[in-house]
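Lecture notes, continued. The same structure-token format from the folding unit now serves as the input rather than the output. Read the line below as a description of shape only.
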């Protein structure tokens, strides 16, 4: 049995998907707190200054060896197939399942063997997106609209059925300085177009990766296990309203043309119209995330992002 960590004690935290936009900021946050991060990803290099292990999470033996050898205090599992439309292609489904379901299962099994807490980053896409009421983190009325959401839900069950010491954190509309996201796409398009069509009938809340990284690091330092929803504060908005605020703060004169999902055009994967998530349970245990408008301001003012995507 792993002993309890003393307050302020240095932790060893393994992060999967460290080259992704969330994983990148988690490594930065852990280093800021003087913890020992171990970054892992499938790529052969990592540009931050910390221990790095190239790891394919679909290889059960490799996952077991990495986690049991390192014996971390916590694993923050960010690695996932997140290309939602590409996940619908039949040729990709075995890969998506291997990454989002089997990879998660292998990590959970290794965490159980080493008595290590696990934080699994999930998504609002596990729900149907029907209605207008915010989804509760304890709601079991699952009905994913696409294969990505289905595999992330199966990943949740792999964690729940394997471990007692786990966090499942569902988030939405993630953006950060490292990697591609909606904010970068809008800023890039604004360099070329005076008007941009953006859907206004999908409602949710953005999530800024430095804010989410801070929360996940807080979780790693505690034992307040459970299922939580986490996104920025400031109320629920549409993608069109999100784009309008991005352009306003960036000083762009690009006009947003609000359109329905049907008017925008059919994509391979259905998107949930209602991505409202209820965060009250989170704030009983942890500090709330910043207002989403403030998050956009922080993002733009850092100046360390590129629209070359």
């Amino acid at each position: 049995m792993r002993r309890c960590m003393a307050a302020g004690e240095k932790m060893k935290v393994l992060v999967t998907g460290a080259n992704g936009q969330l994983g990148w900021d988690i490594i930065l946050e852990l280093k800021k707190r003087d913890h020992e991060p171990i970054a892992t990803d499938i790529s052969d290099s990592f540009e931050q200054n910390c221990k790095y292990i190239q790891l394919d999470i679909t290889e059960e033996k490799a996952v077991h060896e990495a986690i049991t050898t390192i014996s971390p205090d916590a694993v923050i599992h960010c690695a996932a197939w997140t290309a939602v439309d590409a996940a619908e292609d039949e040729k990709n489904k075995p890969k998506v399942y291997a990454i989002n379901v089997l990879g998660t299962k292998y990590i959970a099994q290794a965490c159980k063997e080493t008595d290590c807490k696990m934080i699994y980053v999930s998504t609002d896409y596990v729900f149907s997106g029907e209605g207008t009421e915010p989804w509760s983190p304890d709601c079991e009325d699952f009905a994913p609209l696409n294969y990505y959401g289905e595999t992330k839900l199966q990943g949740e069950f792999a964690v729940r059925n394997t471990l007692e010491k786990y966090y499942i954190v569902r988030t939405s509309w993630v953006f950060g300085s490292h990697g591609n996201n909606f904010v970068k796409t809008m800023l890039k398009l604004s360099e070329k177009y005076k008007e941009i069509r953006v859907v206004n009938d999908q409602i949710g809340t953005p999530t800024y990766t430095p804010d989410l990284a801070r929360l996940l690091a807080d979780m790693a330092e505690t034992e307040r296990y459970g299922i939580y929803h986490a996104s920025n504060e400031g109320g629920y908005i549409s993608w069109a309203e999100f784009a309008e605020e991005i352009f306003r703060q960036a000083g762009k004169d690009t006009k947003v043309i609000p359109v329905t999902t049907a008017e925008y055009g059919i994509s391979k994967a259905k998107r949930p119209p209602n991505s409202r998530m209820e965060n009250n349970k989170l704030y009983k245990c942890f500090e709330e995330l910043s207002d989403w408008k403030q998050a956009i301001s922080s993002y733009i003012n850092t100046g360390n992002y590129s629209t070359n995507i």
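Point for the exam: The chain has a mean pLDDT of 95.
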